[in-house]
Specification:
Number of strands: 5
CATH architecture of the largest domain: Orthogonal Bundle
Largest sheet: 3 strands, mixed
Number of domains: 2
CATH class of the largest domain: Mainly Alpha
Helix content: 40-55%
Strand order of the largest sheet: 4-3-5
Length: 146
């Protein structure tokens, strides 16, 4: 785990502790979430914790995700049909957006410097201070489109 990831883990655990929420279960959720390449559902997080022998209870997973979301440390990515995925909010190199296949549910992260420049250009053109942004594109992945 790199320094950027350790920093997010420690910040997230510090916020939970400040709010009076400190436990091995919360640490397990935060550490697993921090190791992921892209957004996961609460169920996927719970399943991965169980598979690693660190079962914490699905209700705890949901509570930790909500606490982290309220602290702006986790981004909720709405994937349609009432589904949501969660990933750490990191500014800088790990910033990415999502392609979502509406047929199979696959989520593909993507980064595009030209898109980022276009968003910055738009913000300047309309004199708007963009604090954060999320781009989610829905459609069909290559396998489902064929």
């Amino acid at each position: 785990m790199g320094a950027d990831h350790r920093a997010w883990t420690e910040r997230a655990l510090g916020v939970l502790e400040e709010r009076g929420r400190r436990s091995a279960a919360r640490r397990a959720v935060v550490e697993l979430l921090d190791r992921q390449r892209c957004a996961l559902t609460a169920v996927e997080l719970d399943d991965a914790l169980r598979a690693s022998g660190r079962a914490v209870g699905r209700a705890t997973v949901y509570r930790v995700l909500e606490q982290l979301r309220e602290a702006h440390l986790v981004q909720r990515v709405d994937v349609g049909r009432g589904g949501a995925r969660y990933e750490p909010v990191r500014h800088g190199a790990d910033h990415h957006h999502h392609l979502i296949c509406d047929r199979c549910g696959d989520v593909v992260p993507f980064a595009d410097p030209a898109l980022e420049r276009a968003i910055e250009h738009l913000a300047r053109a309309v004199a708007f201070d963009v604090a954060d942004h999320e781009v989610v594109l829905h459609g069909a992945c290559g396998a489902c489109a064929s």
